Every structure is written in structure tokens, then in C-alpha cells.
Amino acid sequence: MTSLSKAIAGCLALSAALAAAACSSTGGAPRPTEDDATAGGVDTPRYVVAMVTHGAPGDTFWDLVRKGAEDAAAKDNIELRYSSDPQAPNQANLVRTAIDSRVDGIAVTLPNAEAIGPAAGDAVAAGIPTVGLNAGMGDYAKYGMSGYFGQDEGIAGEAAGKRLKDEGAQHVMCVIHEQGNSSQEERCAGVDKGLGGKVEILYVNGQDLVSAQSTMQAKLSQDKGIDTVFALQAPVAMRAIDAVKDAGSGAKIATFDTNAELVGAIADGRIKWAVDQQPYLQGYLAVDALWLDKRNGATLGGGQPVLTGPSFVDASNVDKVAEAAKAGMR
């Protein structure tokens, strides 16, 4: 699997045991022991860590982030308190609830930094180690957060755009499923830059997949010149399969992010490929970084972002990825 060199460098910055797992073919998931239990165990006190994300109910991407966080918490003797809300003001309130609960660490996404960042800054001011993950790479440092784990959305989008260009795409419909999410806007802008062709943005409601499919189908029926549907999450990409079919379109489908169902769609050719940012790894590293901070003041990445992607999942490596997906780690 091809990954950016910075992602590899981020892996090498970890402790020896974690580094061996982070760059593995399991997409950053630690390899289980023979009895299927993740190796680990620490001698530190029981800590409490809150992870607050913007994940919407039913979005399988966030199940993978949470699984990674839970595995790191189990290894590090941490009580993980996971919560999420796709509405930025509500997410900010969840961060403030964690502050009031006097947790030992907070990991938070910043899809809307202006709305959520001040709450993260309050956590830092209260002396709580705080890191970012998944969204907000350009903003986390403004609020004093000590680290960030995710992919550079612009770089990832540009890499995807260049690949689409090499494959002959000329007219791409980039589907944003969370209006107002700066990370998704950056992805589509990157696709536009890398493609050098025509990129149209289509906004759909990612919390209503039936509506999302209908919106995509209507656009494809209206504009037969669209040759590629580029989704930004696996569930929307899966709905795009039927949208393309029902619209009588010849458009191909590619996407950001994977789940077990989408891996199967790549394997049978219904979807061409996916940009993988390794969500399991994002959750795992965020929690593990907070434990290291509490344990000995260590900082992963020296305050710089630790990249977890992008990499591509396609016909050349989908069988390996499918194995990890069956274990809930991809």
C-alpha cells in the first residue's frame, strides 16, 4: 500500500511496540496475540480520557475510530468516555462537560474550529492534556493542543485528483455529506487541484442516506457528462452505486474512507478505489498520546501533525485490507 512518507515518519516516532503495529498491513491496528487479545499492559494509575467527535449516528467510519481508541484505552489502563454530535455547538458542550468532569485527557475533532476550538482551549487552560484528531489540522495549535492525528485533507484530495486524472476522468462530482465541515471542503478543493478538469460540488444529507441517494441520482440524470462520482465517506459511496445505476449513468465511483461493505465493493469492482486515512489508527494514537503525556510528559510528533494517510485501497491490495476489515479494524 502506498502511503506518504510523513505517515511513515509519524509511525517511527512512536514507541517500538506501537511503531511495529502502526505501519502494518492491518491499517495501523496492533496485531492480536494468539488468543486474539491485544498485547499490552501498563503499570500506571487508572486515567479517564474523553474522546469527543463530530460523528453522526450510524456512520461506520466513527466505529473504527472508536475501536482504535478503545483498544488503546484497554492497553493503557484508561477509562474511555466516548461521545459525539454532528452539530458543532453541541460538540463544544460535550467538551465542556468533559472539563467539568475533570477528566485526565481530551481528544477532540475540530470540523468547525471557530465553534469548537474555544472549548478545547478551555481544556488546555484547565491543565488537561488535549489533542486533536481527524479534523482541524490547520487549527489545533491555535488553541494550545499538544498534538494532532489524521491526514492532510488537501494533500489527500490532491493525490486523489491526480489519480483520477491518470485514469482519464474529466468531469467529477465531489459529494459533500456534511455542509460546513471544512475538512470535506478541503478534500474537494484538493481533488480540483489534482484533476485540473471540471469538479462540481454536490451537497447531500449524510444523515439521511435515502435522501443522499436521491440527490445524487437527480444530478446524474440531469448531467450525463459526469464521468466520476467522488464520495467522501463509505456509506454515501455505497448509495452512489444505486444512484449511478438508476440514473442510467456511466460514471465510475471512488471515495474517501472504507468499511467492511465498501471493501467488498472494491473487491467486486462496483467501486474503483478508496482513499484510506486509517481511522482506527487515529483513535488509537490520540488515546495513546494522552497516556504518554500523563505518564512521562512525552509528546508524539513534537507538536507537529502525525499523518495517518492517505493511502489507497484498490484491487491490488483489497484482499489484505479485507482481512483487517473483518476484524473491525479497517
UniProtKB/TrEMBL annotation:
Molecular function (Gene Ontology), one example: carbohydrate binding
UniProt main location, coarse: other
GO cellular component, one term: outer membrane-bounded periplasmic space
Localisation: Cell envelope
PROSITE patterns, A to Z: PROKAR_LIPOPROTEIN
Family: Belongs to the bacterial solute-binding protein 2 family.
Protein name: Sugar ABC transporter substrate-binding protein
